[in-house]
């Protein structure tokens, strides 16, 4: 793969300015030769990354698994309810492949543009900006827009996902407390209590220090899965009354839920950039492939058999369908709530890093620490406020998946790869352009259809017109 030429600000590369001419004439022939040799040398971004606060390969795998094994996997039976058994199984595998491919092309493009700009690592937004900056001349002026689009998109995505987390934790705790104590508090009271520990967890600023939280959360999730599987298979399963395919009108909800569940696009670049051995991220087996194969397999199994077990009464989290009042079921609900609570720091890390990078230069050094504490606290409280405004888990998951993850997870990576490769690196018959165009169309269709159906469902909930 050839390196991209740097932007020329509209000037022909054959035209030199006076400053360019003077700087070259001051060099000897030997110095010019050394400079040319240096410029032509292939830059290795991996060799230039700092190792301070870096994560091991295992630690990175744990982070990546945890970013995808959240509330989404427990919503998979609801996704199958909106697709049917056969369509759901095939659709989960196809969407899993698409999501994995989009992460691959994003990371690979980031590695390539790092060599061009001679930087050890680039985040999601930085990758988008540099790709446009060094891309086709007519697109270079959109470099700043590309950076801002990804930055604000990631912030909106993960703040919204954090709202889903708050609703899930609160609903799980309420389900247990309400049955055992007969205290009929509104879910918004539980949300207020949940916000308190989240404020403290949200103050952690280094990804490395979140590894223990992710490890414990993964342990909780494994135990929860084991209990959930016990309840799913402790009675005979009935397949005959479960349709192989659902109404086409429900498919956008399936797509949105699966995309929400699977996509950890905002966590991918921070995890990859913080790896001690980033060459282990892609490839076979690689951190990404190992994580995604595990995720897709678990999603398909939980979604398929969860829907077979509970049918149309399945809820936004299958743990909420477990037998009320049984100790084992309550343990599963509380463990999953604890796992999501511990995961909050990882999800909160992404938007805060973006926000802080944008406002940090405007704050004096002696006030930065205090300002960080204040901003993090205010945002977490605001997250609770949004969660209290839309405390319906099913509707929230579908809406967030449709609007945010379809754009950032599918549309943006396909555009980034296309711009980087255009016009000479698109493969035979420009198949990469056609492939990425299809991905972009799928993401836009998911955005329009999924958000429309989700908003209609939310309106029905608030007007009392929802159908059981």
TrEMBL record:
Q: Which UniProt keywords apply?
A: Membrane, Transmembrane, Transmembrane helix
Spell out the subcellular localization from the entry.
Answer: Membrane
Gene Ontology CC annotations of this record: vacuolar membrane
Tell me if Transmembrane is a UniProt keyword of this record: yes
Q: What membrane topology does the annotation report for this chain?
A: Multi-pass membrane protein
Output the Pfam families linked to this UniProt entry: Aa_trans
Chain ranges of the Amino acid transporter transmembrane domain:
56-455
- What is the first-listed, main subcellular location in coarse terms? membrane
Transmembrane ranges, per UniProt, are 85-107, 149-170, 182-202, 209-233, 253-271, 283-307, 327-350, 371-390, 396-416, 437-462
Record GO terms (molecular function): L-amino acid transmembrane transporter activity
- Protein's name in the database: Amino acid transporter transmembrane domain-containing protein
Native source species:
Hermetia illucens (Black soldier fly)
């Amino acid at each position: 793969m050839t390196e991209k030429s740097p932007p020329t600000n509209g000037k022909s590369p054959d035209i030199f300015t006076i400053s360019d001419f003077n700087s070259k004439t001051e060099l000897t022939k030997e110095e010019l030769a050394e400079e040319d040799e240096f410029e032509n040398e292939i830059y290795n971004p991996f060799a230039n990354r700092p190792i301070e606060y870096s994560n091991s390969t295992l630690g990175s795998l744990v982070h990546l698994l945890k970013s995808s094994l959240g509330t989404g996997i427990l919503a998979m039976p609801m996704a199958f309810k909106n697709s049917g058994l056969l369509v759901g199984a095939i659709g989960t595998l196809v969407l899993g492949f698409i999501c994995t491919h989009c992460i691959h092309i994003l990371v690979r493009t980031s590695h390539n543009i790092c060599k061009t700009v001679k930087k050890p690592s680039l985040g999601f937004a930085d990758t988008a900006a540099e790709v446009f900056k060094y891309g086709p001349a007519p697109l270079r002026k959109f470099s700043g827009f590309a950076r801002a689009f990804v930055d604000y998109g990631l912030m909106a995505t993960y703040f919204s996902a954090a709202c889903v987390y708050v609703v899930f934790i609160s609903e799980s705790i309420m389900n247990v407390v309400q049955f055992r104590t007969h205290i009929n508090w509104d879910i918004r009271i539980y949300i207020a209590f949940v916000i308190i520990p989240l404020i403290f967890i949200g103050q952690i600023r280094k990804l490395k220090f979140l590894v223990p939280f992710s490890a414990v959360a993964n342990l909780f999730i494994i135990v929860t899965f084991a209990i959930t599987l016990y309840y799913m298979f402790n009675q005979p399963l009935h397949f005959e009354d479960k349709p192989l395919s659902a109404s086409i009108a429900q498919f956008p909800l399936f797509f949105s839920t699966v995309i929400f569940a699977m996509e950890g696009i905002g966590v991918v670049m921070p995890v990859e950039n913080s790896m001690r051995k980033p060459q282990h991220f892609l490839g076979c087996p690689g951190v990404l492939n190992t994580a995604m194969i595990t995720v897709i397999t678990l999603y398909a199994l939980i979604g398929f058999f969860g829907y077979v077990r509970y049918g149309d009464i399945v809820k936004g989290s299958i743990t909420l369908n477990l037998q009320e009042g049984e100790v084992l079921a309550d343990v599963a609900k509380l463990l999953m709530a604890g796992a999501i609570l511990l995961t909050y720091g990882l999800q909160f890390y992404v938007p805060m890093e973006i926000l802080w990078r944008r406002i940090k230069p405007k704050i004096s050094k002696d006030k930065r620490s205090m300002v960080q504490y204040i901003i993090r606290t205010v945002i977490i409280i605001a997250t609770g406020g949004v969660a209290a405004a839309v405390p319906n888990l099913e509707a929230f998951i579908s809406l967030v998946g449709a609007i945010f993850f379809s754009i950032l997870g599918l549309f943006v990576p396909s555009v980034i790869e296309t711009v980087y490769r255009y016009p000479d690196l698109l493969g035979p018959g420009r198949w990469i352009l056609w492939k990425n165009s299809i991905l972009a169309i799928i993401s836009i269709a998911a955005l329009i259809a999924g958000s429309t159906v989700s908003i209609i469902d939310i309106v029905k909930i608030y007007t009392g017109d929802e159908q059981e």
